[in-house]
Design goal:
The complex is a heterodimer of chains A (400) and B (375).
Chain A: H1 5-22, H2 41-56, H3 75-87, H4 96-109, H5 112-124, E1 129-132, E2 148-152, E3 155-166, E4 173-179, E5 191-197, E6 203-208, E7 217-228, E8 232-233, H6 239-250, H7 268-274, E9 279-280, E10 283-284, H8 289-311, H9 324-346, H10 366-379, H11 384-395
Parallel strand pairs in A: 1-4
Antiparallel strand pairs in A: 2-3, 3-7, 4-5, 5-8, 6-7, 9-10
Chain B: H1 13-29, H2 32-37, H3 47-55, H4 77-86, H5 93-108, H6 113-120, E1 125-128, E2 143-144, E3 150-151, E4 153-158, E5 165-172, E6 175-182, E7 191-193, E8 203-207, E9 218-219, H7 223-260, E10 262-263, E11 266-267, H8 272-298, H9 306-333, H10 335-338, H11 345-357, H12 362-374
Parallel strand pairs in B: 1-5
Antiparallel strand pairs in B: 2-3, 4-8, 5-6, 6-9, 7-8, 10-11
Helix pairs in contact in B: 1-4, 4-7, 5-7, 7-8, 7-9, 7-11, 8-9, 9-11, 9-12
Classes of the chains: A alpha+beta (400), B alpha+beta (375).
Chain lengths: 400, 375
């Protein structure tokens, strides 16, 4: 099935017009840049309404099967819709764990019943999803997760604790990694994967206050929580394999996401724009030779990443270390982003010391908040230090 | 419009084939023992290897077919030079390529057909450009008088001892011009070799005073100024390509040592204090490769446009800093061995200092990038 250029062009114009007409007005409070920043009910309701609207208009889940609430069209349409959402700088589609990870997973390996039960609610934002992988004592060492799931008749009884549960307090479902067998030779083989309800007795969440002063994550406690046995995905013991597949979606290595603008990307262009009117030593800061040199370095870093993404697809130019570009991408991208955001604060003069809530804070404290939040990416999904170990061991072959 | 701008990156089958052949060639011809054997020779390279490179067509790959070349542009020289850098192979290829590019781009293709055909057939050549240590100085004090007699001394002329042909940048009747001088026209003692930090490289001061060039050996006209600007950028690109190759083999040297050397009962590669900086070298080298092939994608046979200029400057600014870091850490990570002349880390740390200054260091290029990107 081929799509004509004209059809795509018309579609782009149509999405663009819709985004223009439906771009929500400034709600008067800071909107989350990523799904990890949904801290209160009014942010939640605002984003829930927005995602529902985007889906109702037909611009979300466009390539998901029609019978489960998707659009049933070629992926290219969703890609165009996503580009237009980014271009119009509309709010994010925030149900990311459903849209980006759990959804594609269910489509790829789920049963008919699972597809019918879960997919539509993910798209409509009626059902918020969260992820229960990390534990307080097992962050980067995920394979060692100790939360227990014990079969009891037609239920599993869950005991343990998860942490860094994004939107745990708002979620209806969790993708949960728990240990069904503590006695396997390999720690990975004792893990199982559940599509678990959150609203059952014995599951409690406690919001975690972040360095930004806001909320967004919870600790999640399981105390003899009973969930139906059919929440088990696949077979017992397949948890690690399914979790790894989930991470493939999370890292963008495997397609299937419903689409939608999942996070506001902060780029070097945003940084340059925000400092155009900043003055240093009586001159525009962009004329300061030291600052200019720093900015050029950051521009080069961002450009190198974009070029690396292209080079990764040119086989003769990746013969030395074939997987080094994709495997180091998270490390490089998140570290660069963190440094860039810190530099942005650095450029603001005395105003760099102001924070969200101060009337004089530049862009409402956007950069201060964005800098703090950037650590969620340098720590989450494997810290930069663990990522560096992975690259050293898997790409360079250095010893553990 | 994003400041990131053009991110084109293409790699043709010809480039892929050349990269493959050149890597294999350089690996076979230039094991480290052969590199070391050239450290104290006058020319710094083995003429037999150069002749083989000429026979493979590499001296003329970028030259038009009308001049005996392959007409494939500088883009195809980049993979060859990267391969040379990887094997630390000394050859006059970069000097010769830049001299030929300067002539072609200045509009000398038609008039200089014989000279350029000679280069494609293996005549070694070099550009006599600098008159002092400042890569940012574009003034020209060397002159070609109305009578065609040259006055002045050029500095840091690469591969001068081996060059059969010099393309000398001069001032002639108030405008920049290129004088073509044969080695045999030079007075005895005109070439004074430098003692270089990188012993795989050669350069010299060359006094051209008193050399007379015929009218058809002087390229003048409006094309000269733009050709000079372009060749400085192409010089930056080829230096970056060579440095990228050297950084890759420097990384290999480090990784080999980290996988075999034991201290405190453990392979030193298991220590994160060594592991993580080594990953930094890998990712920096990855970026360098992306930059040089991005620049190769954008430099055509015509005058370099803004995007190509940005690409060449970024390639140079990044690649030689990468090699500086890699060479520096290579010495440190080899411990006491790293402090010796015998350890190969010295080859890379020395190459790094040379590459960094050649065609302008990282600060030189970032300063110009700032003007291009931020104003």
């Amino acid at each position: 099935m081929s799509v004509s250029e004209q059809e795509l062009k018309d579609f782009r114009a149509q999405v663009s017009a819709w985004m223009q007409d439906n771009q929500p007005a400034d709600p008067g409070f800071l909107l989350p840049q990523t799904f990890m920043e949904v801290g209160d009910e009014r942010q939640l309701e605002f984003l829930r309404e927005w995602q529902h609207k985007v889906w109702s208009a037909g611009y979300l889940g466009m390539a998901w099967p029609k019978q489960y609430g998707g659009g049933g069209v070629e992926r290219v349409f969703q890609a165009i819709a996503d580009q237009e959402m980014r271009r119009h700088a509309v709010p994010i589609c925030f149900n990311v764990i459903g849209l980006g990870w759990a959804g594609p997973l269910i489509i790829d390996i789920g049963t008919e019943q699972e597809k019918a039960r879960y997919l539509k609610g993910i798209l409509s934002a009626e059902d918020i999803w969260c992820q229960g992988f990390s534990e307080p004592d097992h962050g980067s060492d995920l394979g060692n997760a100790q939360t227990r799931a014990v079969r009891d008749g037609d239920e599993y009884v869950i005991n343990g604790q998860k942490i860094w549960t994004t939107m745990g307090n708002f979620a209806k479902y969790m993708i949960l990694l728990a240990r069904t067998n503590p006695d396997t030779a390999r720690k990975y083989d004792g893990l199982s994967y559940f599509l678990s309800p959150m609203h059952v007795p014995g599951i409690e969440t406690r919001p975690i206050r972040k360095i930004t002063g806001e909320y967004g994550f919870t600790e999640t406690f399981f105390t003899d929580a009973r969930i139906p046995a059919d929440c088990l995905m696949g077979e017992e013991g397949q948890g690690w394999k399914i979790a790894m597949q989930t991470l493939q979606y999370e890292r963008g290595a495997e397609a299937g996401a419903a689409g939608g603008l999942m996070m506001v990307r902060v780029t070097i262009d945003d940084l340059i724009d925000q400092v155009r009117d900043v003055v240093r030593d009586g001159e525009p800061v962009l004329q300061d030779p030291v600052i200019r040199d720093q900015l050029v370095k950051l521009i080069m870093e961002e450009k190198a990443l974009a070029l690396g993404d292209k080079r990764a697809h040119i086989a003769p130019l990746t013969t030395d270390y074939p997987h080094s570009l994709p495997l180091s991408h998270k490390l490089r991208g998140t570290e660069m982003s963190r440094r860039m955001r810190q530099f942005a604060i650095n450029l603001q003069g005395a105003a760099g010391g102001l924070y969200v809530g101060d009337a004089g804070a530049r862009q409402g404290g956007f950069w201060q908040r964005a800098y703090f939040n950037s650590f969620s990416a340098t720590i989450g999904g494997g810290t930069s230090q663990v990522q560096a170990n992975i690259v050293a061991e898997h790409i360079l072959g250095l010893p553990k | 419009m994003s400041v990131i701008g053009n991110t084109a990156l293409g790699f043709s089958e010809e480039q892929a084939m050349l990269l493959d052949v050149a890597r294999e060639f350089c690996k076979n011809k230039s094991p480290i023992a052969s590199v070391r054997a050239q450290l104290e020779t006058e020319s710094g390279f083995d003429p037999a290897i150069w002749n083989e490179m000429v026979a493979l067509g590499w001296a003329g790959i970028a030259l038009p077919e009308s001049c005996g070349g392959s007409g494939m542009g500088v883009a195809t020289v980049v993979p060859v030079v990267e391969a040379m850098g990887r094997a630390m192979l000394g050859t006059p290829l970069v000097s010769t390529t830049l001299a030929a590019q300067l002539l072609v781009r200045a509009g000398g293709e038609g008039r200089m057909e014989a000279v350029l055909s000679g280069i494609a057939a293996g005549t070694t050549a070099t550009v006599a450009l600098l008159e002092n240590a400042d890569w940012g100085d574009t003034r020209i004090a060397c002159t070609a008088g109305a009578d065609g007699v040259l006055q002045g001394t050029k500095k840091f002329v690469t591969d001068a001892a081996a060059a059969r042909l010099f393309v000398v940048v001069v001032e002639h009747q108030g405008a920049p011009a290129l004088a073509i001088v044969k080695a045999e026209q030079l007075a005895a003692g005109a070439i004074v070799a430098n003692t270089l930090i990188d012993q795989t490289k050669r350069s010299a001061s060359v006094d051209f005073s008193g050399v007379a060039v015929a009218e058809d050996e002087l390229v003048t006209g409006s094309g000269v100024a733009s050709a000079l600007r372009d060749v400085r950028l192409l010089g930056a690109l080829l230096t970056a390509a060579e440095a990228t190759g050297s950084a890759a083999s420097c990384l290999d040297t480090i990784v080999d040592y980290l996988k075999t050397r034991k201290q405190f009962g453990k392979l030193i590669g298991s220590y994160q204090a060594l592991k993580h900086p080594t990953v930094d070298i890998l990712t920096a080298m990855d970026s360098a490769r992306s930059f040089i092939y991005h620049a190769a994608t954008l430099v055509g046979d015509g005058p370099l446009d803004r995007d190509a200029e940005i690409a060449c400057r970024m390639a140079k600014a990044h690649a030689t800093e990468t090699l500086l870091y890699a060479g520096d850490r290579a010495v440190q990570f080899h411990g006491g061995m790293g402090f010796t002349y015998e350890c190969d880390a010295q080859l890379y740390i020395r190459r790094a200092q040379w590459s960094q200054q050649q065609y302008g260091d990282a600060q030189h290029h970032r300063k110009r990038l700032a003007n291009l990107l931020l104003d």
